Amino acid sequence: MEETKKDVLVEEELEMKASADYEAGDIQVLKGLEAVRLRPGMYIGTTSSPGLHHLVWEIVDNSIDEALAGFCDKIILQINKGNSITVIDNGRGIPVDIVKDTDVSGVETVFTTLHAGGKFGEGGGYKVSGGLHGVGGSVVNGLSEWLEVNVYKDGKDHYLRFENGGNPIGKLEVIGDVPHDQRGTKVTFSPDPTIFTESTEFSYTNIRERMKQMAYLNRKLRMVVIDDRGEEPIKEEFYYEGGIKEYVAHINKNKDPLFSEVIYSSGSDEYTFPNSDKKSLIHIEVAMQYNNTYNPTIFTFCNNINTHEGGMHEAGFALAINRVVNDYARANNYMKDLEENLSTDDIKEGLSAIVSVKHPNPQYEGQTKTKLGNSEVRRIVSGVLGEGLNRFLLENPRIAKLIIEKVVNAAKARIASRKAREQIRRKGGIDITTLPGKLADCSSRNPEECEIFIVEGNSAGGSAKNGRDRVTQAILSLRGKILNVEKAQPHKVFDNAEIGSMITAIGAGFSEEFDLEKIRYHKIVIMTDADVDGSHIRILLLTFFYRYMRPLIEKGFIYIAQPPLYKVEHRGKTYYAYNDNQLEEIKTSLELKPGHPFQRYKGLGEMDAQQLWETTMDPKSRKMLRVTFSDAIEAETVFTDLMGEVVIPRKEFINENAKFVKNLDV
User: Fold this and answer.
1) What pTM did the predictor assign?
2) Coil, helix or strand for 577?
3) Which domains does the chain have, with CATH numbers?
4) Active site members
5) Partners of 224 in the beta sheet?
């Protein structure tokens, strides 16, 4: 401890000295795209897989903006051999003439200058744009090993290449002729492996889902995805006449829809730019449909950007459904058994919806565009949806009756679950004697260094408790499999003893009351057996966290322990293998004779405390997987398909993913 304090004092002294000598010569001016390469996380969030794919989204979004402007109806994305990306659109093409006050072309300006493009001010080239800051093309160029641009205009193919983080090789030049009616932009880039050191391998699944989503959000826009890396190219096309109506039907297809119709509302309202007389239109689209589940699935977009933290458009949506449904229920005497109004959560139960806004001047929170802040959007969405939903209920009394009966039942269940919630709250802190899971807490009260292992069964729990670091590691033993929350009403969820144990142990509440700042552990580790039952328990826990504590997954606090499958002893030493391939590698490296004995662990309970610590719990040697999801809509689909009421999607998943292997002779 003394050494630590001394180090801190030395650092503070150096900082004071450095600041005292701070002069103009110490100021570093980064030119061109140097800032992007020096701090890539500021522009793409991370240099891991999500950041790598963010490069693709930036280029695709530029083409999407051409579609929003009405000049593009087809976008092709190809993953090439060598793992480069090509995006082609049939829009107007990036300007090839010289930019005012510069001696370079529009193409070079767009790809070498931050905050340059046609998306600024009232007179820009786009009335609506997903790219707000004008950094997309230049950031991709700065983080690429090389990038090539072809612009097709006026019967000519204009070409420019960049290398080594965005340096142009020569000037934009005409390299050939094309048909006079051919127009658009083609961008090909290869990510820089010195920036993306973890991997430069693109995921076809991620790219496919994003392109499919864009096709849903932009009615009649054709999206083509090609993967040319395998022996046989993969090609898929996405085109939807119905737009977000088809999107909601797709989301709801495996959720047993309450009725076949998709409720759709759309409209526009005038927008005046700040400090100007310039006017434009805000366009609103909302599609919604109820199903027989208990969880809402509501996704919001602004200019095709998935605003997963919501914002004013989601607030307007909530205002409209609350007002219209309560008014209709009261007017038709459905509220006689309730002493209070239907809450917004009651009305959202089992509701799938898409809210899409096209705004000429969107205000987001930062470059990541996760929350929409334009206050006028709340009023417009509320008005457009309120009018459309009210008209639908009046014109479709049979469907209206199904909806109102469902939300009234949800209200009754909410009132019943309130008692269960209050019972959990009344416990206050941790009361080990009343926890069915028998929490063995750690002594530290610093959440940043604390971790909790959730294990199943007394045997595994006993080994974990005896082998842990008691200062920073807590153990929560569960008795059997927890409730599948995907199929259960909320009040049943909170009545479940094992779930109550987890809620109380984690300490941050649940559902809409969940507060990430109150969690007691910054690592929540699911530690189950490496067999079918262990996998089932793991997915049940993940389903609970996804539905009732989703920020834990979004912020990366959930982990999955990786216990070894095999133990091999040779000449007084012990070797562990985490899969079949590692076992074979150990056998080969040790030159073991055929038939050399080894142990296959059937469960965590077969390990003693020391073995469990060394292989699975020791921070210096353990292997753990962090649970994240980059696409909330795809995650929603997976949980619904695997854990929901409808059986057919699970059977299809098993048929597509099951791998049959020969039984090992162990």
Assistant:
1) 0.71
2) strand
3) 37-238 (3.30.565.10), 244-421 (3.30.230.10), 427-563 (3.40.50.670)
4) 456, 529, 531, 533
5) 76, 237
Regions of the chain short of the pLDDT cut 50? 1-18, 27-29, 118-123, 125-126, 130-134, 367, 428-437, 660-666
Angle, helix 632-643 to helix 532-548, in steps of 10 degrees: 130
**Interatomic CA distance for residues 112 and 95, integer angstroms:** 14
For strands 305-306 and 263-272, give the pairing.
Answer: unpaired
Q: Please name which of 257, 242, 258, 366 lies closest in space to residue 311, comparing C-alpha atoms.
A: 366
Q: State whether residue 66 is helix, strand or coil.
A: helix
Residue 456 makes CB contacts below 8 A (sequence gap 6+) with 477, 478, 479, 480, 481, 528, 529, 534, 537
Retrieve residue 288's tokens.
């919604």
Check residue 481 and give its pLDDT: 81
From residue 514, give the alpha-carbon distance in Å to each of 70, 262, 522, 548. 43, 31, 15, 8
Question: In whole numbers, what is the pLDDT of the chain averaged over residues?
Answer: 84
* Contact status, residue 232 vs residue 208, Cβ threshold 8 Å: no
Nearest by Cα to 91 from 222, 182, 214:
182
Give the CA distances from residue 330 to residues 340, 342, 403, 412, in Å, rounded to whole numbers and listed in that order.
Answer: 11, 10, 13, 16
| Phi, psi (deg, nearest 5) at residue 79 | -90, 115
Mind giving me the DSSP string for 585-650?
A: HHHHHTTPPTT---EE-SSGGGS-HHHHIIIII-TTT--EEE---S-HHHHHHHHHHHHSS-SHHH
Side chain identity at residue 425, one-letter code: R
In order, the DSSP letters of 240-277 are -TTTHHHHHHHHHTTS-BSSS--EEEEEEEEEE-TTS-
What is the token pair recorded at 400?
């209206």
Query: What is the chain's Cα-based Rg?
Result: 28
Tokens 């995650």 appear where? 635
Q: Order across the sheet with 558-561: list the strands.
A: 439-440, 473-478, 451-456, 523-527, 558-561, 624-626
Tokens found for residue 262: 């998709």
Q: Is 185 strand, coil or helix?
A: strand
Q: Would you say how long the chain is, in residues?
A: 666
**Tokens at 358, concatenated:** 């096209």
Q: Are 349 and 403 in contact (CB under 8 A)?
A: no
- Contact (CB, 8 A) for 639 and 540: no
> Which residues touch 22 (CB under 8 Å, ≥6 apart)?
none
Alpha-carbon distance of 469 to 627, in angstroms, equals 23
Q: How far apart are the first and last CA of the chain?
A: 50
For residues 579, 580, 585 and 587, what is the CA-based torsion angle, rounded to 10 degrees? 120
Instruction: Give the count of beta carbons closer than 10 Å to the beta carbon of residue 454.
Output: 28
pLDDT digits (tens, 9 = 90+) for 163-217: 998 899 999 999 999 999 999 999 999 999 999 998 999 999 999 999 999 999 9
Using the Cα atoms of residue 216, residue 217, residue 219 and residue 224 in order, give the sign of their dihedral: negative
Cα–Cα nearest to 602, from 527, 661, 532: 532
